[in-house]
Design brief:
- By secondary structure, the protein is mainly α.
- The protein has two domains: 66 residues, no CATH class; 63 residues, no CATH class.
- α2 crosses α8.
- The longest helix has 17 residues.
- It is elongated.
- 25% of the residues are buried.
- One iron/sulfur cluster (SF4) binds next to loops.
Amino acid sequence: MEFFENLEKLQAEISEKIDAFREVQSSVLDEQFDRYHHVVFEKTNCLTCANCCKNYSPIIEQEDIERIQKALNVDGKYLFDNLIEMDEDGDFVFKSQPCPMLDIDSNKCKIYADRPQACAEYPHTNMKRIKKHLELLETNASICPAANEILDKVHSALSSK
Ligand code: SF4
Ligand code: SF4
């Protein structure tokens, strides 16, 4: 896929932009990211992508676990035997990637209405005080083409000021 063709180059470009954002006032950065998050996602069709669901597991909170159990109509034992595990940081994550909740043929999430909150908020490009989360943004921009485009647009807008 084009987006991943030269991952090393892509990551170097992303790092350069992230470094530039460290010099920008936090409120200005929030305003720009909020603006371009909406611009880019208005025209993004995630069903043609699903890179996040294929390459990354969200952190799954307790409330998410309860919702997923109900959506799948399974008990906790089934969930932890088959779908969810604790990672080395002590966070609950899906056991495998692509995510076991992803329908690979359609790129649709099988539990979309009940998906983890972290999935609903991914790629977190409109979070408040984004300056405190530049490392997360750096990671997400190398997985998510939309996040990368948002980062590009914010960088261009700030560079032209
Ligand atoms: S739960 Fe759904 S939205 Fe979240 S990673 Fe899995 S397939 Fe994607
Ligand atoms: S990686 Fe980004 S563009 Fe692709 S499906 Fe996930 S949120 Fe949408």
